[in-house]
UniProtKB/TrEMBL annotation:
CDD domains xref list: pepsin_A_like_plant (cd05476)
Stretches that traverse the bilayer: 472-494
PROSITE patterns, sorted: PEPTIDASE_A1
Domain Peptidase A1: 80-434
Organism: Anisodus tanguticus
GO molecular function: aspartic-type endopeptidase activity
Protein's name in the database: Peptidase A1 domain-containing protein
């Protein structure tokens, strides 16, 4: 597939190759290809299939790059989502990026309660129809993959011997349906080249939705679960050797949101890591202390210990952030005391807010969350406050951290996760982060069962630029084409 892409890129971009010399001179080199006439076209296609198959086994695995849209701001969108292509022929679906659940599911034909339109701009909802995909296959109850579904949902069997599921989310919404096996299509970046790839995956075909999932104002086609269990797409692709057992995101907080989502490990010198708490259904990490401007708050570490109903969870499917109930009041009180001379406090709908005429970055303290192993997450004022409105020229900023009455859960949602590289290293059982401008490109490395490849200056990730648009990249593509031709015809001349 890679060799085919290079030839197409060269043919579509120009009939001649433009070489840029050191002195700015250009030289036009005509490209010609002599096709043999002694073979049938079918024989040539068969030869190419064998040749490409042999080549692809030697080429490095790429980084899977998903587009990111949406924003953390609950007054705009309040979620981040991506697009996936499923089935044959491929159909595109908008799905929420959710590290708090495991399974990818989309709304299916004849769904009860599924929205048919969305209030989000430029989103056209669609429904997956297994009968319209030539490669779709329902998962039977005897299929071992059906047993994997029990790790993530209430599974059951229908009278048609279909493996079914039911998901209930924390906001009271829910969905149910049946599992389907079909192809997922995605973009893979290898070095500076982007190729189209596909792999078989199992995902949910929802036939019923309830609660907030039925509301059209922020409706999307489904949810893309990035959890650790066996039916998560990251687990399925890594078990096939298609991708590394690690994924990363960088969610942009300003200027309309968006960001980066890759199946691979973003490489950044300032990344710090903390271990995952073992044997947990979510991405639990050990929060040990909270500090304001370097002063640690008097909160017992036991408040954050992981148990059945407490602990700290990293969840991109949560818009705001939540503190354990015992830690919430000390935290908010300390914030209020630190800014008492510069803002006017007020309570709006039970939430602590502040009226300010100055930049909050100059007034509010820096918050440091320290985790096991000494890893610290630094939060700016924009990472724990949300602007609601303005009064008489003064901005009203409200506490973005909330509490769940009667529970000791701390949840780090999009409010905290934005403007940071977040790496979920499942192979190493750790999570890393670093503050970052998510409008910038990133470097990514990928380690799979087939080996390790480093990707340096991966410019396509983050700006979705086409390598065919740049003359230097085009020149590199042409050179690579000739090298691959020489390698192929030299190594496999006996075919």
């Amino acid at each position: 597939m890679l060799v085919f892409w290079v030839f197409v890129c060269v043919i579509l971009t120009a009939v001649v190759v433009v070489v840029v010399g050191d002195g700015g001179m250009t030289v036009a080199l005509p490209l010609e290809r002599v096709f043999p006439t002694s073979h049938e076209l079918s024989q040539l296609r068969a030869f190419d299939r064998v040749r490409h198959g042999r080549m692809l086994q030697q080429l490095p695995n790429g980084v899977v790059d998903f587009p990111v849209e949406g924003t953390y701001d609950p007054f705009l969108v309040g979620l981040y989502f991506t697009r996936v292509q499923l089935g044959s022929p491929p159909k595109e679906f908008y799905v929420q990026i959710d590290t708090g659940s495991d399974v990818l599911w989309v709304s299916c034909a004849n769904c009860n309660g599924c929205p048919t339109s969305s209030g989000l701009q430029q989103i056209q909802l669609d429904f997956f129809d297994p009968s319209s995909s030539s490669t779709a296959r329902p998962i039977s109850c005897s299929d071992q993959r059906c047993a994997l579904g029990e790790q993530s949902s209430d599974s059951g069997c229908s009278t048609q011997n279909q493996c079914g599921y039911t998901f209930q989310y924390g906001d009271g919404s829910g969905t149910s349906g049946f599992y389907v096996a079909d192809f997922m299509h995605f973009d893979t970046i290898v070095g500076s080249l982007t190729t189209n790839s596909s792999a078989p995956v199992v995902f949910g075909c929802s036939t019923s939705e309830t609660g907030d999932l039925t509301k059209p104002d922020r409706a999307i086609d489904g949810i893309f679960g990035f959890g650790q269990q066996g039916l998560s797409v990251i687990a399925q692709l890594s078990s096939q050797g298609m991708t590394p057992n690690v994924f990363s995101h960088c969610l942009k907080g300003s200027n309309g949101g968006g960001g980066i989502l890759v199946l691979g490990q973003i490489v950044e010198p300032n990344l710090v890591y903390t271990p995952l708490v073992p044997s947990q259904p979510h991405y639990n990490i050990n929060l040990q202390s909270i500090a304001l401007n370097g002063q640690t708050l008097a909160i017992s570490p036991q408040v954050f210990e992981t148990s059945s109903n407490r602990g700290t969870i990293v969840d991109s499917g949560t818009t705001l952030a939540y503190l354990a109930e015992e830690a919430y009041d000390p935290f908010v009180n300390a914030i209020s005391q630190a800014v008492s001379q510069n803002v006017r406090p007020l309570v709006a709908k039970g939430n602590q807010c502040y009226l300010s005429t100055s930049s909050i970055g100059d007034i509010f303290p820096t918050v440091s969350l320290t985790f096991a192993g000494g890893a610290t997450m630094v939060l700016r004022a924009e990472d724990y406050l949300i602007q609601q409105n303005s009064i008489g020229g003064a901005a009203v900023w409200c506490m973005g951290f909330q509490k769940i009455p009667g529970q000791g859960l701390t949840i780090l949602g999009d409010l905290v996760l934005k403007d940071k590289i977040i790496v979920y290293d499942l192979a190493g059982q750790r999570i890393g982060w670093a503050n970052y401008d998510c409008s910038q490109a990133v470097n990514v490395s990928a380690t799979t069962s087939r080996g390790k490849t480093e990707y340096v200056n991966a410019g396509q990730i983050g700006n979705n630029s086409s390598p065919c648009n740049d003359p230097y990249t085009l020149l590199l593509s042409v050179v690579l084409t000739f090298v691959l031709q020489a390698l192929v015809f030299g190594t496999y001349s006996f075919l």
